[in-house]
Write a structure and sequence with these properties.
Length: 152
């Protein structure tokens, strides 16, 4: 079993894309395609932190879009066998640290209403529910809770 202090957190590299695409399929009912993830490498607004184990296997990642002093967390994914170890929280706090250093003032994200573990993670990272997006998710159709946090 890998402890979090043995994990490596780094920026997104092209070598991560194939494993991220696998994780998307493992974690989401409507996953981002490999091509969409590849496009993120050239998107000046996209920022990612990738978590790998000591062997270089991608175990999770977080993505965001930053425009001026506002950010949206677009996706947080951790392989199912690595969940409940605090990796998601570590990814969120790593991204928030980078955002704060970059002058981001406010951050938003959407989370499935039924995804209580993710909601607890975001609450622990200082997010609060600020709204709801009706029927935001597909397969199954579900509302999203809009969560936000001020950084500065």
């Amino acid at each position: 079993m890998t402890r979090n202090d043995e994990l490596i957190f780094s920026p997104l590299l092209p070598a991560h894309i194939d494993q991220m695409a696998e994780i998307e399929i493992e974690c989401f009912s409507v996953p981002w395609s490999r091509e969409a993830l590849l496009e993120e490498l050239d998107n000046p607004y996209a920022h990612y932190v990738v978590c790998t184990d000591p062997a270089g296997k991608v175990v999770g990642y977080i993505g965001s879009r930053i425009v001026l002093d506002e950010a949206d967390i677009t996706n947080v994914a951790v392989r199912p066998q690595y969940r409940r170890r605090g990796i998601g929280f570590d990814l969120v706090t790593a991204m928030l640290g980078l955002m704060k250093m970059g002058g981001v003032r406010s951050v938003l994200l959407e989370v499935r209403e039924s995804n209580l573990p993710a909601q607890k993670c975001y609450e622990r990272a200082g997010f609060t529910v600020v709204g709801r997006r009706k029927n935001y998710y597909e397969l199954p159709k579900e509302d999203a809770l809009l969560m936000g946090r001020q950084l500065i």
